[in-house]
Amino acid sequence: MADAPLNPALRQVAEQYLGRSLLPQEAQTLMAFQQKTQNPSAQAPIQQARQQTQHAISNGHHHANANMRDLLSSIQASSSQALQVQEAEEQAILKLLEGTQSLAELRPSSLQPAMNALQPGSQLALSQIAEHLSNLARQEVEQCFQQYFGPLSAQLQEVVMKLQIKDAVPNSAAPAVPPAPAPQPTALEMPAAPNAQMAPTSTPAISATQNMADASPAPAANAPTADVHIPPAPPSMQ
């Protein structure tokens, strides 16, 4: 069998790699490599290695797919089990809520015997539900009270404030001025008694002099007594 000529494409690749033309010895070496690769006995290991690689890749795909299927199955089983547990806990919570008669029974201390069968997360959720229901009930009561009794309460507060202001005004006012004494009637205004004689015109002066004498301080023991002569009253006119 004659030697096949060197493949031009293989020569071109070698020359481009070396950057120059091939020498005769290099051309013979490249020719031997070409003959070796074209020999069927030499291609058998390459084909076998290729088949082994493809078989390994195929086995890897099958193994990966099997692992993915197992993982998905375990996830689905766990999810289904978790959903069943959650549903059972929800049913237990609903049963507890339906069995309570007042909000006081929803306190954690009152629900402690029935909550022992629940998970800690469910116990916390039940406590939060009870607190939320208590807040809703309190808000509803306050809203109803403000709606029905709010205006009446505001009116009562307004009336009480007005009464307090009214009671505080007299206490803070200035004291009242006492009334002036009634004027005493004079001698001229007094009515004359029947069958009485007319009083002398100098009687008021005499009375005033006597009053002044009575109001003056008593003289001392050693002081001389003043000689006070009161003129006699004129004869009264009949």
Automatic annotation (TrEMBL):
It comes from the Bacteria. Residues 195-238 are annotated as: Disordered. Residues 198-212 have a biased composition (Polar residues). Residues 213-226 have a biased composition (Low complexity). This is Uncharacterized protein. It comes from Chromobacterium sinusclupearum. The lineage of its organism: Bacteria, Pseudomonadati, Pseudomonadota, Betaproteobacteria, Neisseriales.
